[in-house]
Amino acid sequence: MKKIKIVVPISGGKDSQACLKLALKEYKANEILGLFCDTQFEHPITYKHIDYMSKLYGVKIEKICAGDVEEKILKYNRFPGGGARFCTDELKIRPSKIFYKEFAQQQGGFEVWLGMRTGESSARAKRYKNKTSNELYAPNDVLNKYPKYLQKLGVMFKLPILEWGDDEVFEFVGDELNPLYKHGFPRVGCFPCLASGDRWKEKAFNFDETGRKHYKLVQELEIKVNHSIWTSKGGYARNNKNQSDVFTGCAICSI
Q1: Neighbour tally for 133: CB within 10 Å
Q2: Can you list the alpha helix ranges (DSSP code H) found in the chain?
Q3: How does pLDDT run across 171-189, given as a tens digit for each residue?
């Protein structure tokens, strides 16, 4: 069996796809492995796109799952937010670091190519301001939630599209993009990301049958955790016109 040299975490979005496509310019398909951490809250279009990429590029994409969004919301008795993205921590980061450890123990070290870009947000621009796209970094130097022992096992991280802008990514991936982008969604992954802005949540919840199904689940969770999914006054008002008496907890959730 050919040793894997590059592992690319795959979300179904444009940045991770660009990393996968870029890796194929330097390595053979059987030297690359995609890693998809399933939150069980993605859109069927995204699941289909994961399989499409695997066939298109000839690269195996390993699929792992560490639970689901509903389970984590009930565990923490709240929805994920800007300062508490437990969904990412427990459904993406934790299972991936376990996978990296076990895979490195099995076959030796490898590089992980992450689709992080400084242009995505001011927080990422600050976090990666001293990083470059050409260097290899210890996993915990890229994200401190990754343990130091991964480096000792030979796992190193690279940020190959760190300085790329949106236009460069779209141009590089071309027509092979996740179809959700053509429907006006700037990000794909959880459908929707429950830590995103209210307008994007509304757009997803009203998009199609899947969106409505996810919204129904979220409405049930609102009652169970006694919190609203809507974080803005406008979002709450638009979506809870007849439910003013549903929540009995802290009123801060509704403003």
Answers
A1: 16
A2: 14-23, 44-57, 69-76, 86-88, 94-107, 122-127, 139-142, 149-152, 166-173, 198-205, 209-225, 233-239
A3: 999 999 999 999 999 888 9
Q: 227-236, long-range: CB within 8 Å, 24+ apart, which pairs?
A: 227/77, 227/78, 227/79, 227/253, 228/253, 228/254, 229/79, 229/194, 229/201, 230/198, 230/201, 230/254, 231/81, 231/197, 231/198, 232/197, 232/198, 234/198, 235/198, 235/199, 235/201, 235/202
pTM of the model: 0.91
pLDDT in tens, 105-162: 999 999 999 999 998 888 888 889 889 999 999 999 999 999 999 999 999 999 999 9
**Do the Cβ atoms of 173 and 181 come closer than 8 Å?**
no
